[in-house]
Amino acid sequence: MKRKGFVALSLALTLAIAPGFSSNHTETTTVDASGNQVTIESLPKAKNKGKEDFDQAALVENDSVAEIVNEQGKKIGEKKIEKNTTKKQSKEDKKAMKNEAKEEKKAEKNKSKEGELICLFCGGSGGGSDDGGDNGSGDEATRVVTVIVAADEEYRAAHSDWQTLTQNIIENADNGFTRDHDIDFQVKTFAQWSSQGRNASEILQDLDRDWNGNGEDFLVGFTRDSNFNSGGIAYVYSNDPYQSAVSVNLDQGAENTWHAAQHEFSHNYGLGHDPQGSGIKCIMNYDYSYSVDYWHQEHDDQIEANKGWYGK
Length: 312
Ligand SMILES: [Ca+2]
Ligand SMILES: [Ca+2]
Ligand SMILES: [Ca+2]
Ligand SMILES: [Zn+2]
Ligand SMILES: [Zn+2]
Hints:
The chain is an alpha/beta fold. Helix 5 crosses helix 8. Residues 1-24 and 112-138 have low confidence and may be disordered. A hairpin with a 7-residue loop joins strand 9 (232-237) and strand 10 (245-250). Helix content is 31%, strand content 21%. Residues 41, 43, 263, 267, 273 line the site of one zinc ion.
């Protein structure tokens, strides 16, 4: 599907390809299909093979019903999504999880103190002044953000259960957002997508042209296209985008893919990367992207600051 005539424009406006500090790192500034000035960030593929399948049902924060649509945008079915909170039902449990995560982070911070002594340019909270933790105030309302999932032809061919699988990936990817930022991602649409492009950036732009504009907060693609030369890729916005925020994840099995999805959603909130080798434990550091599900303090702050971009 080709809906928009922005192709030539976006290509013409591709401004720069920065060399970056690692061979895997590419950064491109361009304009997306809705006219946002964006940076494209890509995540290398995982080094380790994570779990291929989910061994338990994902934590689903709320009931919802999603539409299934074909490549032409025509509704061809519905999928009921049921709340599943068997792992942590109560507010108390939620608090406990949050505190555990905070403790874990603090421990990590202390561990990396020695590192900070020799790392003059690590920036930020080197002075040990602590963040005072948790913005204290009890429960604010959870912010619900909506998602359209688009699975490409290669992905759908490999996974007859692609709707359940991608749903589980989103519901794992949002657990960190819910725990640390009270943001609940809900899938509203499952779309059939035909992916085209010579590399991950082009495939991201293809998804943007094909499927953006149906009103959800996030448009996320899942691909097995052989030209997709990355683990995941996303637009990084510097302010609230005009339309859906876009990312694409490669099929790397259940576990690696949900980590990538959480990383790419974080880019959509404006987050960049932490320097590799810095020891900063954060999903935005390539060294930990496939192994942790939380952010370091400054990135937490950035998500809080940009939370209002999406949902309500
Ligand atoms: Ca979830
Ligand atoms: Ca959710
Ligand atoms: Ca394709
Ligand atoms: Zn990234
Ligand atoms: Zn970070």
